[in-house]
Design a protein that fits this description.
With about 675 residues, this protein is mainly beta. Helix content is about 10%, strand content about 30%.
């Protein structure tokens, strides 16, 4: 079988973000066929980002965030927040960052994407008691003119930094706007808050229950989740079970109890998972059963487990079910815990998973399995590593060559590296600028999506502005590559290598340079511009077995199944489009010749999502519609995960981008790169 080459694809979009405030030109790319001949080259005059953080009094919130039921815009009355303490900090899901304003009375407004019923909100304090809000009123509106008072608080007192206070109120009306008017703080000239959330609780009476939207990552549909008892401490109620955070936990002071899921519609479930809490193993559930019903009276037991031990904190245990029927109700009955006075569970997920795609394989092509090397056909009969090679690769002073495919990048310049800006590797750390290696950086984003701990394991920070990356030679033997903090830049000193947001060098910048240095010795590809997906992944994972699906080979349902099965099996999944200028989602349009990272979508109506390594609006995530136009244009390259597989933390969920300021949602790529493939 001949080597199958992947072509690159990109999607370009112009998006107007809050046209009443400013227009930000956002181009969004979308991926492509199967090998990648080359994304593009750098232009001497790239599109520049703009910085609006200092004056912006609003922040866009995306669906699937943990602070609000749906996406929308959060804004503050004034534009005088200090830089770094803007209103975005109040909805970034990070307690250690703070919104601040040099005022003691002001309002905060949430403009939801659609009218939502809210009867719960929470405020998390900052790091100064005098700056804590003390008195406020909450109101709702559907026209931002006529307001209904929903809740009033006076003389509230926070006792500690980052303390979360939760408030419930009676409300039966869905509003599009919710406004908190802070009347006073504790006497300081400024007011600060760490977090603000607006959510819904379906029934304030026992048992505790809460409405769950269809965007939730753990449950199969929209519905209501409830617990048998309402004794959970503040911040540990049943919603913590389905917030996709292993660091938060549901707690009840009972060793036997039930959790009930009441879906808005019936759903077939063949998989469930439980995750242990971050602390107190004696609080872990030990024995339980999962049952299903369509009337909440007659129950069918689907699975029973006894004497289960969670060996680690935040450990996810997954179970497959032999179930072929759809049910409206699912109930988890915990029968005993591990001996503690209370029980904690960090996460509960129930889903329907496709088990395999064996029947689709006759439609595949481009198999790269080799009988000569585990790295794949491209690596057969290549240079064999010598001791001199190892010595050269391990010396950070030895630099790779400049790239012929990016002639405007004329120097290696030292930049400060922040390996993990968000604390752990994220796809948002991968933003392509000037090098036409979209397949490579799409693979890096896939690593971050599926195996963030793998990235941390293969990169060693040597503490002297150098980094050692664990890689594999063409024969599949381990080899270490050490690089300096000098990265490709243009004549003006602007970084052209892949970066995180705001041009910050990250782990992705380090991996890209290590790939360049590796190629100088082994010359499997003379230039990383145009390098293929299946030629990148094995250099880091040691496994080059892959296959492809060409465009128009699978129908929409089978295409979705191929992606889901591949992701569930932990395979590096990259894809793209074969035709340009067709609408995808929002303002995004297809453009051929660019590589995208395949992920689960937050939109249940979408087949899946594809992240553009250029970033852009929503971090460049496109939701692929289930129609007869777009899916036939998509092709895939699917690569075994090799060494990375052991770093899996259970099945992947939809990717939720971190909060991005308006400037971080613009892109900076060369015009040549924008135009390539047309």
């Amino acid at each position: 079988m001949n080597d199958y080459k992947m072509t690159n694809y990109k999607v370009l979009s112009n998006s107007t973000f809050l046209s009443t405030v400013k227009k930000v030109l956002i181009f969004t790319v979308v991926l492509l066929p199967l090998i990648f001949s080359g994304c593009a080259k750098e232009d001497p005059d790239p599109i520049q980002e703009t910085d609006t953080e200092k004056t912006s009094n609003f922040a866009k919130i995306f669906d699937g965030n943990s602070n609000t039921i749906t996406g929308g815009v959060i804004s503050v009355e004034h534009t005088d927040s200090p830089k770094g303490s803007g209103i975005n900090k109040i909805v970034d899901g990070v307690d250690s960052t703070f919104f601040s304003t040099p005022r003691n009375s002001f309002y905060i407004l949430w403009n939801a994407n659609r009218a939502m019923l809210v009867n719960y909100y929470s405020i998390t304090s900052g790091n100064d008691r005098l700056q804590d809000p003390k008195s406020w009123a909450l109101s709702g509106s559907n026209d931002n003119a006529a307001w209904t008072l929903l809740d009033t608080r006076t003389n509230e007192a926070f006792q500690a930094n980052m303390e979360k206070k939760e408030y419930y109120f009676v409300n039966s009306t869905a509003y599009k706007y919710y406004k908190i008017e802070v009347a006073e703080n504790n006497g300081a000239a400024s007011t600060s808050m760490a977090e603000l959330s607006f959510l819904s609780k379906a029934n304030p009476d026992l048992p505790f229950s809460s409405e769950v939207g269809e965007q939730n990552l753990n449950m199969p549909t929209a519905g209501i989740i409830s617990s048998q008892f309402s004794d959970a401490p503040f911040g540990s109620n049943v919603l913590s079970l389905i917030d996709s955070k292993s660091t938060t936990s549901f707690m009840t002071f009972h060793s036997s109890f039930y959790i009930l899921w009441n879906g808005n519609e019936s759903a077939l479930i063949n998989y469930y998972a439980l995750t242990s809490a971050p602390d107190k193993p004696e609080y872990d559930p030990k024995s339980w059963k999962l049952s299903a019903s369509n009337d909440s009276i007659n129950w069918t037991v689907l699975d029973t487990r006894t004497n289960v031990t969670f060996a680690n904190r935040e450990e996810r245990k997954e179970y497959n079910l032999q179930n072929t029927l759809s049910y409206k109700f699912y109930r988890l009955d915990v029968l005993e815990n591990n001996g503690g006075e209370a029980t904690q569970i960090a996460e509960w997920a129930i889903r329907n998973l496709d088990a395999n795609m064996d029947d689709l394989m006759p439609y595949s092509n481009g198999r790269t399995l080799s009988t000569l090397t585990p790295m794949g056909k491209r690596f057969e009969n290549r240079h064999i590593t010598t001791q001199a090679d190892k010595t050269w690769l391990a010396n950070a002073a030895n630099e790779p060559s400049l790239l012929g495919s990016a002639p405007s990048l004329t120097q290696l310049k030292e930049f400060t590296v922040t390996l993990y800006p968000y604390g752990t590797p994220k796809p948002a750390d991968v933003n392509q600028h000037a090098i036409g290696d979209c397949s490579a950086v799409a693979v890096f984003a896939s690593f971050a999506y599926l195996y963030p701990d793998f990235i941390k394991d293969i990169i060693t920070d040597n503490g002297d502005k150098t980094y050692t990356v664990a890689m594999f030679d063409p024969q599949g033997n381990p080899v270490n590559v050490t690089v300096s903090s000098k990265f490709l830049a243009d004549g003006n000193g602007k970084i052209g290598a892949v970066t995180g947001k705001s041009d910050r060098a990250t782990w992705a910048t380090v991996l890209e340079k290590a790939l360049m240095k590796w190629q100088k010795i082994y010359k499997v590809n003379e230039d990383i511009g145009g390098i293929g997906t299946e030629h990148v992944a094995p250099i880091f994972t040691g496994d080059g077995d892959s296959f492809a699906f060409s465009a128009n080979r699978l129908n929409s349902a089978d295409l979705r199944r191929a992606v889901e099965v591949s992701l569930n099996q932990g395979k590096i999944t990259i894809g793209g489009f074969t035709k340009s200028d067709l609408p995808v989602s929002g303002n995004h349009k297809t453009v051929s010749a660019h590589a995208f990272t395949l992920m689960y979508s937050q939109d249940n109506a979408a087949l899946f999502s594809m992240r553009n390594p250029w970033g852009g609006e929503g971090d460049g995530v496109l939701n692929i519609p289930n129609n007869s136009v777009i899916p036939p244009l998509i092709d895939l390259r699917i690569v075994n995960p090799g060494k990375a597989a052991k770093y899996a933390k259970g099945l992947p969920g939809p990717y939720t981008p971190p909060y991005l300021s308006p400037s971080q949602q613009s892109i900076r790529v060369s015009q040549e790169l924008l135009n390539s493939g047309r």
